[in-house]
Design goal:
211 residues; Rossmann fold; 5-stranded parallel beta sheet
Length: 211
């Protein structure tokens, strides 16, 4: 198969990391993940979001642009957990909506974002993972990550609405939409096989696939 770059997008708790890991293992692709442990702004951000939102978003923007280019330039196919596009259209937008990112900072951020992304090579495919907000909240609670303790269903619902807006207008590459509420690709091998088969079909040029 021709070298591919696939991005995995979706709300918090939708299964992005788990799916990225398993597709990478199954297909022998490189995998890349969100920079959290080595992000120097996160501790301060969680203490004072209004003060540190712009710094955090700029850090993520630079990290994801470097990651995107590194994966693209590798001779091996790759799958990436979360896309650079979500930073702007979902999370920066949410910070601005909630009053944690000023109008001036938001516009400055978007100017840099558009400058960077218009020069990025397009991905081969975007996988969009969906699940009901109630299920997302249960998954987040069950994994019990300290940094996620403040995530509410109201916040997840806000993000979900922004995801729907973004996906409706997204035209950079084909999109494979996967509803994960009835899929367990962590424990059910047949579910993972189903996802991989649909992924390969979509990459081969088949028409719109949603399952």
């Amino acid at each position: 198969m021709t070298k591919r770059l696939v991005l995995v997008a979706g709300n918090i708790g939708s299964g992005k990391t788990s799916l990225t890991e398993r597709i990478g293992q199954q297909l022998g692709w490189r995998t890349a993940y969100e920079s959290v442990a080595d992000n120097p702004y996160l501790p301060n951000f969680y203490k004072d979001m209004a003060q540190w939102s712009f710094h955090l978003q700029i850090f993520f923007l630079g990290h994801r642009a470097e990651q995107h280019l590194e994966m693209w330039n590798d001779s091996q196919s790759a799958i990436v957990d979360r896309s650079i596009y979500e930073d702007a259209y979902i999370f920066a937008r949410a910070l601005h909506h909630m009053g944690n990112l000023s109008e001036l900072d938001y516009r400055s951020y978007l100017r840099v974002f558009h400058l960077i992304t218009r020069n990025l090579p397009p991905p081969s495919l975007l996988i969009y993972l969906k699940a009901p907000v109630g299920m997302l909240a249960k998954r987040i609670k069950s994994r019990a990550r300290n940094m996620e303790t403040g995530i509410t269903e109201e916040y997840l619902t806000l993000l979900e609405s922004f995801y729907e807006d973004w996906i409706a207008a997204f035209d950079i590459c084909p999109v494979l939409t996967i509803k994960t509420d009835d899929l367990d690709f962590v424990h059910q091998k047949k579910h993972l096989t189903t996802v991989v088969n649909h992924l390969l079909e979509k990459l081969s040029g088949k028409e719109e696939i949603v399952f």
